[in-house]
Amino acid sequence: MEMREAYGRLRPVCPSCGHIHFIDPKVAASVLIESDGKVLLTRRKHNPQKGMWVPPGGFVDWDEDPRRAAIRECEEETGLKVEITKLVDVISSVDHAEFQEGGASMVIFFRARIVGGALAANDDADEAAYFGPDELPELAFEPTRIVLGRWKEKTPNFKSQTPNLEV
User: Fold this and answer.
1) Domains with residue ranges and CATH for the chain
2) Is the pLDDT of residue 25 over 90?
3) 3-class state of residue 145 by DSSP
């Protein structure tokens, strides 16, 4: 492979056959679940970012609706059955190193409500707990820090810098 101009930017191209290799985004879907002014987070059991905290979520399979992926991942990691209530945001990772480590390049965040199950860390999570805006643990991944920063700003007792934000 060699880098050549293709479709407006440099891309890896096979010099023999001309095949262009497109580096597609790695997409994750995540849910924000609130209870009594706190947000549910899971602690990562594996790298990248092992031991750090994120909302329940994970990668979207190539043939999967992101809402279904968020619901599936939440149940796998927490034992909770949820229903998506709202799209919160789609955040592109601004940290290229996280993507290179195997993280997502784009995360779709949904708000969700619990409709069943019992909270128990499982799968990729070794702990699950609720945290208030003033007690957030060390967060993994830039999109998580962005969305929870916005959540914190919108939570009572914190002054919002972005009053029109729908988090």
Assistant:
1) 25-154 (3.90.79.10)
2) no
3) helix
